[in-house]
Amino acid sequence: MIKTENLTYQYPDGTTALKGVSIDGSRGNCIALIGENGAGKSTLMSALIGLLKPTGGTVFFKDQPLSYQKKKLYEFRKSIGLVIQESDKQVFYSGIYDDVAFALRNMGMAAEQIDQRVQAAMEATGITQLADRPVHYLSYGQKKRVAMAGVLAVEPEIILMDEPTLGLDPKSKAGVKAIIEGALAKGIKIILSSHDMDFIYEFCDYTYVLHHGGVLVEGETTDVFKNTEALETASLEQATMTRLEQCLGIKGFRSIAALEEAIRNQKKEVQTDETGSSGH
User: Fold this and answer.
1) Looking at the 3D structure of the chain, how many domains does it have?
2) Are residues 31 and 138 in the same domain?
């Protein structure tokens, strides 16, 4: 659906941020871009959505080179949304409803359809009860959900997310995870960057490791996190579940929560068996 071929980008000051980057969005439903600060992740996302025109190489959408004509970019961005790291810069209306409806109104959509989409997006992100609250009273995590609702309301085919869980408390983080799960269930493709390796390991089925503006290694997420040499080169840590697999032989779990649930179920089975045995 979306991919790049030999993408290069050089900033006006001469800094080369991307060096021949080729990624393929068809590799997975949830794709990770990971790497140390300055590796090129945010620049690549800006290029994917057409905010930056590459110095070299090509962005393809549905097998067609991305056009940078204003009208065609406008149409393209109906199919792809971006949730940036700094939610304060993405949420700028004083009222939540108006903020979520902003892009839809710009598209000239009928008021009734706008209301349907806004209500659905607010429900999907768990902010319906906040609809009448002024934006400046919201927490950082709530603003993140408002930003996500604004993107979901457009009903894009692809959503790019830059550090979606950064700075969130556990409850807010769980809320963002639920939003991502809901989007994936609807068939929306997610491409995200994060320094939270456990989050990446849990959600992403394919991962690109960026280093000094290029792709250092790529592959299925479970395989990438076993490549300790590449992770060390990119100043990244292994996911907790990868370490548990290597140290204790625990396999088949993508998160601590999934492992804990399996242990609880196993205990219940043991207790049931013991109760049944004692009854004979």
Assistant:
1) 2
2) yes
pLDDT of residue 133: 85
Domain membership of residue 72 (yes or no) is yes
Q: Which residues, including other chains, have CB under 8 Å from residue 75's CB and lie 6 or more apart?
A: none
Q: Give the H/E segment covering residue 210.
A: strand 206-211
Mean pLDDT, to the nearest integer, of 169-177?
90
Same domain, 98 and 69: yes
Closest CA to 239 of 261, 268, 209: 209
pLDDT, tens digit, 9 for 90 and up, residues 45-97: 999 999 999 999 999 999 999 999 999 999 999 999 999 988 878 887 778 99
Same domain, 69 and 108: yes
Q: Can you give the pLDDT at residue 13?
A: 92
How far is Cα 36 from Cα 38, in angstroms, rounded to an integer?
6
In a domain, 83, yes or no: yes
Tokens standing for 94? 């004083």
C-alpha closest to that of 30 among 139, 179, 240, 244: 179
- Residue 242 in any domain: the answer is no
Lookup: tokens for 64: 């067609």
Position 243 in a domain: no
The pLDDT of residue 274: 63
We report the CATH number of the domain holding residue 17 as: 3.40.50.300
Residue that has been written with the tokens 């080179």 in this structure: 65
The torsion region of residue 158 among left (phi > 0), alpha (psi -120 to 50) and beta comes to beta
279 has pLDDT over 60? no
Which residues lie below 8 Å from residue 280, measured CB to CB, with a gap of 6+?
none
Residues 129 and 230 placed together within one structural domain of the fold: yes
19 close to 212: Cβ distance less than 8 angstroms: yes
Using one digit for the tens of pLDDT, what is the confidence trace for 198-236?
Answer: 999 999 999 999 999 999 999 999 999 999 999 999 999
Q: The domain containing residue 267 runs over which residues?
A: 250-279
